[in-house]
Amino acid sequence: MFKNMKFGSIEDASILRKFTVLFLLMSIIPIGVLFYFYLELKDSGSIKITEANFSTTLFLIVLGVAVGYWAMRSVLKSLIDITRSNRDALTAILGPEKIQELSEEKNEINVLARSFSEVTSRLEENIKSLEMAKKTLHSVLTRVGQGISSMHDIGSFLDLIVETVVDAFSARVGFLMLVDGTRNNLYLNAVYGVNVGPKSHIKLSADGKPFGEILKGNRPVIIDFLEEAFFKDDHYRALFKTPMLCAPLALHEHVIGILVVGGKHSGLTFQDDEKSLIHNLALQTAVAIENSQLNENVEKTYFETISALALAVDAKDRYSRGHLDRVADYVVRIAKAMQLSEENIKTLRNAARLHDVGKIGIPDEVLTKPAPLTIQEMDMMKKHPEIGESIIRPVRFLRNLCDIVRHHHEKLDGSGYPDGLKEDQISLLVRITTVADIYDALTTDRPYRKKYSFEDASKILRDMRGQLDQSVVETFLSTFNASGQPEQV
User: Fold this and answer.
1) What is 135-291's CATH topology?
2) What angle in degrees, to the nearest 10, is found between the helix axes of 272-316 and 384-392?
3) Would you list the domain boundaries of the chain?
């Protein structure tokens, strides 16, 4: 019967149970005295109280009251401690001003109801903040992921990182600075939200304020204030908007730069969760920068290797030796005169250095023949653009050169090779390379003829009106002076 009964310690009981037990204990002695008096009246009709009985009864009653008082005081103290703890917790959640407002309420039920209402409201705000942080993180990761998949160069990727962080943190401006080779200075690499002119104008000491300590400490920091003396000019004033959230770009215990966002639209400062987010993003950005540098070194090695092959072919024929370098110089001159982008100029220069690499697959007796080629030999020679393309196509970063390498012998009227392209099928970069290639061939000695003068070569290029882009021809010829010497472009 008693096996299933559980007797717990009263210390672990609820306040209501403690009160009930203590009330019963306090009631035993008074009830016992009253019961004794009842029995005396029933049996004898009167109550006989001796001095000894009265003293004993009084002592027991006083003892019961004292024990009850101590026990009840202990219970009430526990209740007060719980109330104080709850009040402190509410103060931490709602703030002292709201607690003071609630304390003026006389109705305890209203106080309790309003307290629960305020706590619930704050919890809902915290949930919204967590959801916003989750959406911010998802947005950052999504945009960064898209940037990685479509990234053409590390500069575009870093611009995307800065733009994404500024938007995600509702900031006004963001920028990324990298440590230079001497590790003494920081130079501006990417910026979003403000126009500061040429990036090279912005340079800071890697040891001075405000970023020196951040770089040395290798941890994210929130800067709420900058001294007026720090702002050297309007560029700095526009760039450094407080509060600023700064995170070092750390890589293998070395800091290679710093990522900064500043100027909250809300006017508030940045939070710890934002500090944690930008810190993790800065670490990943540092890894991306290192990978880019490694890829650049590998790509440079590949390019130099293939260029060496092309130069080896170029060196076989003493008549055309130096052809690749001259064509590279010509295409750059044309591109600059046409005000093409730096990216297009780079593509033209690299393609010109590799455009004849396919001749490595042509037999030497054909390649160096000191006489005009036969039809069969010419057909063999016409294979070199396709061979050249097949050599560079497997190398991912050289694929943008494939169009020029394959089609630099195409003509606007479709008489070129290997694909017989016409008019708009031939890109501007290919047209530029074709003009430069033909001009160099005309103005160099061949075993079967002497080189043409500038005037004669110019006439031949203009006579090829249906085959060559005359706007490119005229732009090219305008880069020479009257005596046929190159002008400064």
Assistant:
1) Beta-Lactamase (3.30.450)
2) 150
3) 10-96, 135-291, 317-477
Q: Is 9 exposed, middle or buried (0-12, 13-18, 19+ CB in 10 A)?
A: exposed
Report residue 269 CA to chain centroid gap.
21
Location of structure tokens 């170029």: 314
Distance, CA of 183 to CA of 276 (rounded, Å): 26
**Among 349, 354, 356, which Cα is nearest to 333's?**
349
Pick the closest to residue 185 from 207, 214, 200, 201 (CA basis): 207
Which amino acid, residue 211? Answer: F
Cα distance between residue 19 and residue 100, in whole Å: 31
Through-space distance between the first and last CA atoms of the chain, rounded to whole angstroms: 109
Chain center to CA of 431: 39
Across the strands, what pairs with 413?
Answer: 422
- Residue 70 burial (10 A CB sphere; 0-12, 13-18, 19+): exposed
Q: How far apart are CA 323 and CA 101, in angstroms?
A: 88
Query: Could you read off the pLDDT of 228-257 as tens digits, one per residue?
Result: 666 666 666 778 888 889 999 988 778 888
Class of domain 317-477: mainly alpha
Topology match between the domains 135-291 and 317-477: no
- Please provide the DSSP assignment of 18-65 as one string: HHHHHHHHHHHHHHHHHHHHHHHHHHHSS----HHHHHHHHHHHHHHH
Q: Tell how far CA 179 is from the center of its chain.
A: 18
Distance CA 25, CA 65 (A): 10
At 22, the amino acid letter reads L
Tell me whether residue 140 is exposed, middle or buried, using C-beta atoms within 10 angstroms of its C-beta: 0 to 12, 13 to 18, 19 or more.
buried
| Cα–Cα distance measured from residue 230 to residue 178, given in angstroms and rounded to the nearest whole number | 20
- Which of 164, 109, 112, 107 has its CA nearest to residue 139? 164
Q: State the Cα–Cα distance between residues 470 and 462, nearest whole angstrom.
A: 7
SS3 (DSSP) at 161: helix
Alpha helical stretches, state H, 181-320: 212-217, 234-239, 272-316
For 59-100, the pLDDT digits (tens) are 777 777 777 777 777 767 776 777 667 666 666 666 666 666
CA distance 175 to 403: 37
> What pLDDT score was predicted for residue 437?
94
